[in-house]
Amino acid sequence: MVDCTVELPNIPYFGVRLDTSDIVGGVGRKSHDETVREIFLKGFTHVQQTSSSDTHVTLVAQSEETKEWVHIRVYALERLRRDATLRDRIERSVLVGCKAQHPCIVRIMQPFFSRTDLFVVEEYCAGGELLSWVETHCREAATTKSGFEPPLGLSMGFVKSVMRDVMSGVDHLHTRCGVAHRGIKLESILLDNCNRAKLSNLGACAVISTNEGKEVKNNPLKVCCASRHYAAPEVVMGLPYDGKLVDVWALGVLLFVLLTCRFPFEEERDNPYESSSDTAVRDGGDDELLMERICNADELLLKHPVLAHVSDPLATDLVRNMLRVNTKTRLTVREVLEHPFLRMP
């Protein structure tokens, strides 16, 4: 396999000088038909808008040449020129996504420009976000279970399949691309039409050393990028950290959620299985208490009331060893892949 190590610290700005008088806010002041026309001229048809935010518009379209369906995110160039943080995240995402070339990482194609906008084209995943799968399952559990009987996690077969896929993608980022993801969460994992899990949201990636022994100046890392529920203890405490082990921690949180439909360190309730559609897997709660519980993960997970109901002891063993506070005893990505819970039958 060809080494695709990337040098993120030297990413150039897109650097296009434009007349931006017709651009306001997050997207250019143009009609939907104008945007569709620009995309059509690049060889895409059946263009439909799927969502919008203050930074970009997302569309789905089909390549005339390959017949492949894609997502196209449209960013106003004027916004990118003013917003260095957004620009940096897009540049990182595009660079890593174009170079990674792995079946479990969302592929990004060469972006293109109009006079006013940047168009980022990426692989379309028909199954949507993993978050939606978990939320749907948790809502079903909440309406069908009663008393203290625990809601079921996702099926063990599905959990194993997702974890194998995601771990494989992360291993590729670490060992072949020389980057840590740093933004792993339910929303960062998409499912294709065959339910294969794929890593997305690569904008927080940071350069790390690779297995080939190449060292870079910004390792260990210091910037906190993780979402609150997925943050490792060393990140919570503001310590320099190993990006690879921070990714393992976030993956341990992910595994816990897939098994239980609960975040591992959220505040315990009188009924630990009480669930609702807006509390089960969404961020919320007391930050200070959450940080304290994260830093005491080893003790908490030994007697966690929800984890105790997971049917497979190999699954609970893997969770506890991925969520070790001591980074020297926390499993590596390769050790996770070799764990009996994830081994193919």
TrEMBL record:
Domain Protein kinase: 44-342
InterPro entries assigned: Kinase-like_dom_sf, Prot_kinase_dom
GO MF term list: ATP binding; protein serine/threonine kinase activity
Pfam families per record: Pkinase (PF00069)
UniProt KW keywords: ATP-binding, Kinase, Nucleotide-binding, Transferase
Gene Ontology CC terms, in alphabetical order: cytoplasm
UniProt entry tagged with the keyword Nucleotide-binding: yes
Domain of life according to the entry: Eukaryota
Protein name: Serine/threonine-protein kinase, putative
